[in-house]
């Protein structure tokens, strides 16, 4: 089996590629290695993947139409589109990257799948599509037409375009709404990384909405298990699933767990809710359990120490 993974140098793409390679699946990895965060971290992830002879990397930007001409002779069984401009807050500063990488890029991947007659496309959506919805937990049946950031709007657009392509051209399409993913090799722009780094360096951490935030933090291994469930899922129509831990944590408890594991106290800067941010996320995973066999197991008390151990090793802190 050969799977094409876009965003392979990214946090989730790296872990997914690693897990697929372990199962003897051939992986074609694509990434443009952009500098949204430390490129060195992306290169180090790729170094790990390149140790496996079944991994083939291509530095390609999915926004570019010439992508459609690549891999002409290669048989690809499934495409997993994870490449995107991530980050909710950054979408207020740099809106065009979200339209280009997320919407145009996703359209190119759909065209690629259509042209090459590939049977299945799995793609990353996000819990942010639920916007400020008050009904909890968030269910895939809820309305999601009131996004509060351009990032969320770009992900919702991908879902709509995928629905249309899947119907028109008859390939299987699965959209996965990820809920705050964390773990080793995680993203430097996300809370787990920033809090750990700043607490170690005795710098202040910004705590938005004065700490009154709740997040369904989902450990990376659980997310990978869910994506792999989507690879084997035989449902034909375009379907969307939540991949979340089904356990909404108080932000203050999350910070406390980091503090306890570091043996250090955080200096907190309590600030109002940021534009684009939502106060709470919580995933209803009934259909993901049923169709993808998704079963998240990792509590933050288990996942955070694993992240901290990786962080210290990676940055030679002990
Ligand atoms: N990490 C999370 O908590 C989370 C939550 C919800 C959704 N998601 C989505 O999951 C996917 C993976 O997220 P991640 O956390 O691994 O992010 P990431 O930024 O670590 O990975 C994305 C990768 O895509 C690459 N990329 C960006 N634009 C590209 C383009 N135009 N062409 C080719 N490559 C490009 C980047 O260089 C990066 O390596 C993204 O679509 C993201 O929006 C992530």
Q: What does the secondary structure layout of this molecule look like, with pairings?
A:
Elements: E1 2-6, H1 11-22, E2 26-31, H2 39-50, E3 55-59, E4 78-81, H3 95-115, E5 120-126, H4 150-169, E6 172-178, E7 181-182, H5 191-200, E8 204-207, E9 214-215, E10 218-219, H6 220-232, E11 239-243, E12 249-250, H7 251-262, E13 267-270, H8 286-292, H9 300-314
Parallel strand pairs: 1-2, 1-4, 2-3, 4-5, 5-6, 6-11, 7-10, 8-13
Antiparallel strand pairs: 9-12
Bound molecules: nicotinamide-adenine-dinucleotide.
Nicotinamide-adenine-dinucleotide binds next to helix 1, strand 2, helix 3 and strand 5.
Description:
Helix 1 (11-22) packs parallel to helix 2 and helix 5 crosses helix 7 (251-262). The radius of gyration is 19 Å and the shape is globular. The chain has nine helices and 13 strands. The longest helix is centred in the N-terminal third of the chain and has 21 residues, at 95-115. Helices cover 38% and strands 17% of the residues. The strands form four sheets. The protein has a seven-stranded parallel β-sheet with strand order 3-2-1-4-5-6-11, with helices on both faces. The protein has a two-stranded parallel ribbon with strand order 7-10. The chain has a two-stranded parallel ribbon with strand order 8-13. The model has no long low-confidence stretch (mean pLDDT 96). Strand 2 (26-31), helix 2 and strand 3 form a beta-alpha-beta unit. The chain has a single domain, classed as NAD(P)-binding Rossmann-like Domain (Rossmann fold, 3-Layer(aba) Sandwich). It has 318 residues and is α/β, with parallel strands linked by helices. Nicotinamide-adenine-dinucleotide binds next to helix 1, strand 2, helix 3 and strand 5. Residues 6-7, 9-13, 30-34, 42, 61-63, 82-86, 101, 105, 124, 126, 178, 180-181, 187 line the site of nicotinamide-adenine-dinucleotide.
């Amino acid at each position: 089996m050969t799977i094409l993974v876009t965003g392979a140098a990214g946090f989730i793409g790296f872990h997914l590629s690693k897990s697929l390679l372990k199962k003897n699946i051939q992986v074609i990895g694509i990434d443009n290695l952009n500098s949204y965060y430390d490129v060195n971290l992306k290169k180090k992830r790729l170094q790990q993947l390149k140790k496996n002879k079944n991994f083939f990397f291509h530095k390609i930007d999915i926004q570019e139409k010439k992508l459609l001409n690549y891999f002409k002779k290669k048989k690809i069984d499934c495409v997993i589109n994870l490449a995107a401009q991530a980050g909710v807050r950054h979408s207020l500063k740099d809106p065009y990257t979200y339209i280009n990488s997320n919407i145009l890029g996703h359209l190119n991947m759909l065209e690629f799948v259509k042209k090459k007659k590939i049977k299945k496309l799995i793609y990353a959506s996000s819990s942010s599509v639920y916007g400020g919805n008050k009904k909890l937990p968030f269910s895939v049946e809820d309305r999601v037409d009131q996004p509060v950031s351009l990032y969320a709007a770009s992900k919702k657009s991908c879902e709509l375009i995928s629905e249309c392509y899947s119907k028109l051209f008859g390939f299987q399409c699965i959209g996965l709404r990820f809920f705050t993913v964390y773990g080793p090799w995680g993203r430097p722009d996300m809370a787990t990384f920033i809090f750990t780094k700043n607490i170690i360096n005795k710098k202040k951490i910004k705590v938005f909405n004065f700490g009154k935030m709740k997040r369904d933090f989902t450990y990376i291994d659980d997310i990978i298990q869910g994506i792999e469930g989507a690879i084997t899922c035989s449902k034909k129509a375009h379907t969307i699933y939540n991949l979340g831990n089904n356990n909404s944590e108080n932000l203050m408890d999350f910070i406390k767990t980091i503090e306890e594991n570091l043996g250090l106290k955080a200096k907190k800067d309590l600030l109002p809710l940021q534009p684009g941010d939502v106060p709470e996320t919580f995933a209803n995973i009934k259909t993901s359990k049923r169709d993808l066999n998704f079963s998240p197991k990792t509590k933050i008390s288990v996942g955070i120490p694993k992240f901290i151990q990786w962080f210290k090793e990676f940055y030679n802190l002990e």
